[in-house]
Structures are given as structure tokens and as C-alpha cells.
Amino acid sequence: MLGFLKEPVVVTAKINVSLVALTLMGLISRLWGLCYPRAVVFDEVYYGQFVSLYMKRIFFVDDSGPPFGHMLLALGGYLGGFDGNFLWNRIGAEYSMNVPVWSLRLLPALAGALCVPLAYQILVELHFSHCAALGAALLILLENSLITQSRFMLLESILIFFILLAVVSYLKFYNLQKHSAFSGSWWFWLLLTGVACSCAVGVKYMGLFTYMLLLATAGLHFWHMIGDQNLSNVSLLCHFLARALALIIIPLGLYLSFFYVHLALLYRSGPHDQIMTSAFQASLEGGLAWITQGQPLEVAYGSQITLRNVLGKPMQCWLHSHSNTYPIRYENGRGSSHQQQVTCYPFKDVNNWWIVKDPGMQQLVVSNPPRPVRHGHIVQLVHGITTRYLNTHDVAAPLSPHSQEVSCYIDYNISMPAQNLWRVEIVNRESDTDVWKTILSEVRFVHVNTSAVLKASGLSGASLPEWGYRQLEVVGEKLAKGYHQSMVWNVEEHRYGKSQEQKEREVELHSPTQMDISKNLSFMAKFTELQWKILTLKNEDTEHKYSSSALDWITMDTNIAYWLHPTSGAQIHLLGNVATWASANAAALAYLCLSLWYLLRRRRKIYDIPEDAWQLWMAAGGICGGGWAVNYLPFFLMEKTLFLYHYLPAVTFQILLIPVVLQHLSDHLCRSVLLKSMLSALIVAWFSSVYFVYCTFSPVTYGQPALSLAELRALRWKDTWNILIRKQ
């Protein structure tokens, strides 16, 4: 029974020494001197703010993309014991002692280091030689721009890592397809492909480009499988379902989980709340949740309410009125009704309170039991402080003459009777009998007499002049089609009115509400709203000193100064390895020309290279050339401020194309021993130049040692580069 103990237990393993060495060199190149400089470097001033908010559990919205990358940066801060207390207000600011600089920069650096062995694995899985794979890894290792970007609290290195991991995983899965379908390793690499794609998209939406490329590649491969007569219909269905599960369903589920964790962590109210709906704000601890805690849910006749416009951008605002009237005549000569002004006011104020009145009754208090207002009911809205009725009539609005003026009615004993009846339409109702609910219901107010819809037009235009206190215009939109958010309102603060006398009512309007109601949103409701805000929220694109166009990237006619030492000439720049970038452009052009040549020749039934070599050539082009194209060309369609670092995922794929082209030249175009020897000598000389450029620009890659003025001037190889030189 214990016979197995007579022999020693032996474990054997194959270790790729080259892969291990490349990984170690990658770690050294990215981790060396990681705490230097101990100051805020370029976009660390941007991402650091989000890390601090994570540490303090304060909600925020970043329109640059999903939260997974931010959470990874915050994980580094958490592991380093960061308490979030640092003022991220300027580039170059010295970090205080409570900021764990090494820990915050660790994950991007590790991701950048692991890109080196991943580059090696991609070429191996594409069935290129060990020498070609080694060359690809060394080019990534010595790429100055990738080193710079991975040594700071930035997201591009993490994005590139997940992109390359997805490509490696898919290639490994595909290579197992013929002989090990549905095996454990087959499932592992297929599932890892989907996970890596989801993580790439979760870091930045740029990851979506590579995800689409791999989905298209998987679709093409499955199309070829359909033509395989050796596969049964059941087998094909199983293959399809496996790919759908791993490449679509699991990535979607994982993407949702990023937001779930994000929302679970950030449960406190913060400065970004105002762009979210009242319901979302009320779900956060503090802020609106404290104000609205205990409000009644159902709006009834006699309810005292504040109405917030759902659009919420460029600023939130509430339906508001005050005792001042519209001027008898505007600056352009048009006349007004001279009624009481109604505006949208971007601050909480007692003049934001309105009372929901039943047109058939005089009382302004809630009956017992309350009579709820439902979809389709006719109401009057009475301004709480002035007791005048919300009104609109066929008079042009002050800033929008095509729309009706909205006012609070004053009886001047002239032929302009009150028109103050409004129909409540619940936009997000589930049925036509839905009750109007606090925070949850989004409603339109349709004027009974004219069918105009109450609209906060000032959110998309100029504010009122001095006579309107620069507040936002509210109009009756006569040609209202659809449910534009500027026409939709929700009740934010709410109480049941108890005082019939005006003086008592004014005291009541100033007092806080205290009633019991819960308004928790579901995760999917919060996710949908947050996702929509991320996709639609646009900061004003301003020209940046280091912004550039996509055309500037190919020839690296631009750079970015990341950091400058306050006294010495030490500085850090985002600059690529000139030799590598030029070679990558040449390789892409050579690949394109050779591919067109081969296609023309093959059309004439002339086959210059064997079929397996042609398939290898096309596969490499699809991954490396396709990866460059999908990560680069979309930027020509984007209306946003662009920077050189946006090109890094694309140039990474383009660099992988260099050894592909070189091996093809050696194997198929250099047919004599002499030509092969000459090509090898040229490759050695070329690679020496790559290493020379890497060493030359290392001082501005790592920020040390500090260079003299003459040395800095010598690094300005292009007139368009902005090398920082202090005036003496």
C-alpha cells in the first residue's frame, strides 16, 4: 500500500529560459527607480483625484471610460495604506509622506513589464521562429514611450497588457482547436480571452477596438469550421455556444461586475452628484439622501414639492419663481405679458417650492387620507411663497420667441385670463394608472389650453439678462416631439402640506421634512444611468499645449513633457524610440506592398510562396496589422483632444510587425546564402541603432541623470519636439 514511498517523487518541468530572462529584464526596466520623481507626473494629477475619492468612498463620474482601471490604481493605493489625503492640484507638486508612491505606480509598472514576454508569446503562437519572437520582445523592452507610460500612475500600460493577453489567449486557444477541442486547456484559453477583453474594455473604451478585432477573427475562423464536413451539426452548435459564452456573455457579465464593485465602494455623496438624477443622488449616503430622508413617496393634492429638471447639464436647476415680473418691453423691442417671472434656478432656494392643487378645490393642504395624483390628472401648480399659479399663454418667451412665455399669473384686469391648468404625464410609467412618485417618476407638464410642454430651455442656451438675475429661461414648447430631457421633471423634495394660512405655510416651507420612505434604486437602474452619463457627458474640449493630431503620431512629430525638476535640468518626456517607430512604419508599408503583390500574382495563378507560408503571412497581418489599424484609424473620426499616448496600443501592434516582415524577407526573398548573410548583418546594425536610441533618450525616459543645456539641445532631433530648456 505504501510502495510508492520506495521511490522519490520527481517533478519535471520545461522552463523557457528566454521567456524568464525577458520577464526579468522587463521588470528591471519598469521597476527601477519607480519612486522617482517623488512628485506628481502629468496625468497623475488627474487619476490621483479618483484614487483619493476611492479611499474616501466618495462617488464620482469620469467621462473618460469605465471604472476598472481606476479601481486597479486605487488597489495600489489601498495596498500601500493610502488614506486619500493629498491635494492633487498641479503637476510637479511634491508628494507628502502619507502618499505611497511606489505602491500607486506598481500595478502599471508590472503591467508594462509583462507586455515584454507577451510580445514574445504572440510571435510564438503565430508560428514564427524563436529569433523573431525574441526580437519582438526586445523591441518592446527597449521602447522608450512604453517605459515612460508604464512607470507612473497611468492606464495605458494596463490597457496594453490586457490587449496583448487577450491576443495571446485567443491564439493559444486557436492552436489547440484541431487536436484538443473542449479540453481543459482549450476552455482555459478561450475563457481567458473573454476575461482579458472585458478587462481591456473596462480599463478604457479603446480596448473595444481589439475586442472587436478578436470577435471578427473568431467569427472568420468559425465560418471556416462550418465548411468542415468532418464536424457534425451538433459539434458546430457546441463550438458556437462555447464561443458565445466565453467571448460575449462572460465579458458582458464581468463588465457589469466592474460597475457593481465601483458603486458598492463609492456609497458616499460627493461633488459629482449633481449630474446624476435625484433618485441616484438619494441612493448615496449624505447630500441629497440626508435632505430627502423620510419624504412621502406618493405626490398628492396639497403636496409641497420642488421640481428638478432631469437633463441636469450643463448644470442642475429647479423650477423657480420670485415676485419680480418680466419687463414690459425687451431690449429687442418685443413686448411681454409683464407677469411674474418663472425660471430654472441652479441652487436650492425656498422659492423653488410649489404646491400641487386640485383645480376643483380651494384647499392647499393634503386631505386625510391623501388623494394621490396619477398619470393624466389635471393639476394647478401654485408657487409656495407668492401663491401665484403657474401659467403660460400665447406670448413669446424672452429668449426663445418661437416658444411660449411661462409665468405666474397676475390679474391685471385686462383681456388675458389665466391659463393655469397642466396635465401630468409620467414618462417612465408602467401603466396609465401610475401614481406620481417622489424622485422616481419622471414627468412632463402639458398645458391644457395650448398643448405646450414645460421646458427648461435655458440649459441649452444663454441665461436671462440682469432683469432675470441671470437665471435660466423656462418656456412652453409648442412643437414638442418625443421626451427630450429638458422637458422632463422629477420631484426632488416633498412634504405633505398641513397649513392653509399663508404665513404658517411659509414657515412650513422653510422647515425640513421628516417622514418615512425608502427610495433605493436597483443596481441595473444605477448602472444604466451611470453608463449613459459616461457615454454622453462631455467635458469642453480645450486646446492643450501638448495635444496633437493623429497624423503627427506616425512620424512622431510631437512629444509630451511629463515632468520637470524645479531646479535642475532633469525632466521626463513621452518620446518613442525613433529607430523603432521608423522601422515599424517601414514594416507596415512593406507588408502592405508585398501583400498586394502576392494577391495580384495569386490572381494570375502564380504562387510565389508556399500555401502554409501565405496563411502564416496573412494571419500575422490580421493580428499585427489589423491591431494597428483598429487602434489607430478610429481617432480620425473622434472629436476629442488627442495626445501621443493614445497611439501607444496601435504602435505596439505595429512594432510586432517588424520581426514578421524581417523573417519573411529572410525565409522567402533572400534566396542565396550571401543575401541572407547581408540581411543578418543589416539586422544587427539596425538593432544596434535601436539600442543606441534607447540609451540616448534614457535620461528623459527615467528622468535621471539631469542633463546640461547642451545635452538637452542635442536631444531635440526634430524642431517640433518641445524639450524644456531653462533660460539662464
From TrEMBL:
Pfam families: MIR (PF02815), PMT (PF02366), PMT_4TMC (PF16192). The keyword Membrane applies. Keywords: Endoplasmic reticulum, Glycosyltransferase, Membrane, Repeat, Transferase, Transmembrane, Transmembrane helix. InterPro entries: ArnT-like_N, MIR_dom_sf, MIR_motif, PMT-like, PMT_4TMC. It is found in: Endoplasmic reticulum membrane. Gene3D superfamilies: 2.80.10.50. Its EC number is 2.4.1.109. One of its GO terms (molecular function) is dolichyl-phosphate-mannose-protein mannosyltransferase activity. The chain crosses the membrane at residues 12-32, 68-88, 100-120, 126-142, 154-174, 186-219, 240-267, 578-600, 612-630, 642-662, 674-694. Belongs to the glycosyltransferase 39 family. This is Protein O-mannosyl-transferase 1. The gene is Pomt1.
